[in-house]
Design goal:
Blueprint (H helix, E strand, L loop, with lengths): L1 E5 L3 H13 L3 E6 L2 H11 L3 E5 L9 H12 L5 E5 L4 H8 L6 E5 L6 H12 L3 E3 L1 H11 L10 H11 L4 H8 L3 H15 L7 H12 L2
Parallel strand pairs: 1-2, 1-3, 3-4, 4-5, 5-6
Length: 214
């Protein structure tokens, strides 16, 4: 898998390069500031980009802006965004387009190597990978007398795991229930939220997140 990295912290940047190359991936380019990112992504055409939200010179949202711009010029470009903290506005903006292949993780997650690599591969394959803390923030923000309040505690657990990008088998293992039960709970979630009764792939995650962000 060909990867472009944009991160201004030299230690983390080099750590990502080492981690990815050790896992058998090819790092085709690195950037340390916002203005470098878009030209690099368009020139190298990676399979996936790993970008820090905040990059020089402004240390605001340069990485996110570059990711959004790159996806406009190259629709479907898989992007995994890293952030130091949960920033709801950035997460919502990244997910707002409803496109495939997006991820938003806290930087602490990089230290959990297996989880990070699994998330990166999921995004590169067109799926979605959201940090559990980000999902919790979005779900709590979305509550307030709406259809989410009609979900049972179990359905809420299933929805949270769906939003993290987990498949039915993983949800079943995590909650210690059968896949058939997971399928049923997912059907109930979509019915209560007024969403299409589909539980396949990343489309269900993006549909749920679109609802939570509406």
């Amino acid at each position: 898998m060909r990867v472009v990295i944009a991160e201004d912290n030299a230690l983390l940047r080099e750590g990502l390069v080492l981690l990815l190359t050790s896992a058998g991936h090819e790092v085709t380019g690195v950037a340390s500031s916002g203005p470098e990112v878009l030209p690099l992504l368009l020139e190298r055409e990676p399979d996936v980009a790993v970008l820090d939200v905040r990059l020089p010179p402004g240390l605001r949202d340069e990485g996110l802006r570059a990711a959004l711009a790159a996806r406009e010029k190259r629709p479907g470009l898989p992007v995994l965004v890293l952030s130091q903290y949960v920033e709801e506005t950035y997460a919502a903006e990244l997910l707002g387009g409803g496109a495939h292949g997006v991820g938003y993780l806290l930087k602490d997650r990089v230290g959990r190597v297996d989880e990070f690599l699994a998330a990166l591969e999921r995004v590169a394959a067109g799926g979605t990978a959201l940090d559990p803390e980000v999902v919790t923030e979005l779900m709590s923000k979305g509550r307030g007398g709406g259809p989410l309040d009609t979900l049972t505690p179990r359905e809420s657990e299933v929805l949270k795991l769906m939003a993290e990008g987990r498949d039915n088998a993983t949800i079943a293992t995590t909650l210690v229930i059968t896949e058939r039960s997971v399928h049923k709970h997912i059907g109930n979630v979509f019915a209560k939220l007024g969403l299409p009764p589909s539980d396949s792939g990343h489309r269900r995650v993006l549909a749920v997140l679109a609802y939570l962000n509406s």
